[in-house]
Task: inverse folding
């Protein structure tokens, strides 16, 4: 979709004479937008995200989020928090890892300004804005039209998001690295359940036993407004209830959720945390 009253920003044009490989900049922009939409649809459907709150940049706080396809970063997002209403989406190429498309929403004079830039190789090919004149999101150097700078910035976000979180256990961080969505445990030396929609798998581990694998399914809501999951396999099923109630486990950690696991004829209590 092209926003009304788009203005062309003066920047490097690889496509001034037909563009690299003969593809005009406008065509390249349309192809980049289509690529970004496919990525959003795929990553959103898989729930293959990792995120960290409180990412600091330009003296503002952001929620930093990375979405993955086939284990590689496919979209890098920044969502403003604490009064910062701006939003960024950055899309790296699946092979080179360099940015191919950026879109943003910036609050300006009580309205939302939408900007987008397509990148080709080491240069910005085309940039469009819904405001006139163009308004930079930050007061300093506008890194968006500098492909090298925006790639360095994007990589710094990915590196930050991919660091292990100190508030999580070793097992929970390992599950997070696999883009699991939820981690639950009965405490120290007890059972562990990891829910990973991005791989369509649920894994239940108990000390001294072989891990059991189940297929992922979306939850239902019970009469108490709690999320109830039923995970099945050829060897049985388990029912998993997530309760929005803080929980302290025997591993001396506090968790935001209380969980109840029903496995055949037994019921197991534990604690859980969202990993995304």
Result:
């Amino acid at each position: 979709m092209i926003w009304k009253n788009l203005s062309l920003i003066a920047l490097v044009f690889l496509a001034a004479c037909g563009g690299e490989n003969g593809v005009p900049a406008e065509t390249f922009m349309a192809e980049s937008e289509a690529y970004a939409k496919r990525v959003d649809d795929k990553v959103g459907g898989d729930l293959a995200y990792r995120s960290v709150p409180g990412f600091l940049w330009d003296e503002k706080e952001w929620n930093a989020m990375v979405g993955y396809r086939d284990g590689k970063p496919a979209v890098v997002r920044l969502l403003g928090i604490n009064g910062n209403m701006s939003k960024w989406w950055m899309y790296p190429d699946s092979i080179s890892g360099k940015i191919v498309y950026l879109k943003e929403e910036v609050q300006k004079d009580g309205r939302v300004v939408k900007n987008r830039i397509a990148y080709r190789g080491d240069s910005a090919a085309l940039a469009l804005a819904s405001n006139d004149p163009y308004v930079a999101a930050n007061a300093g150097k506008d890194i968006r039209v500098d492909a090298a700078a925006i790639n360095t910035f994007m990589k710094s976000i990915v590196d930050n998001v991919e660091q292990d979180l100190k508030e999580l256990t070793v097992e929970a961080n390992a599950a997070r690295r696999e883009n699991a969505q939820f981690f639950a445990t009965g405490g120290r030396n007890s059972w562990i359940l990891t829910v990973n929609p991005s791989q369509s798998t649920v894994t239940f581990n108990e000390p001294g036993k072989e891990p059991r694998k189940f297929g992922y399914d979306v939850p239902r809501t019970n009469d108490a407004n709690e999320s109830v999951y039923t995970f099945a396999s050829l060897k049985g099923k388990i029912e998993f209830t997530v309760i929005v109630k803080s929980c302290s486990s025997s591993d001396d950690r506090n968790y935001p959720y209380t969980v109840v696991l029903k496995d055949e004829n037994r019921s197991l209590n534990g604690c859980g945390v969202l990993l995304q």
In short: The longest strand covers residues 60-69. Residues 25-46 form the longest helix (22 residues).
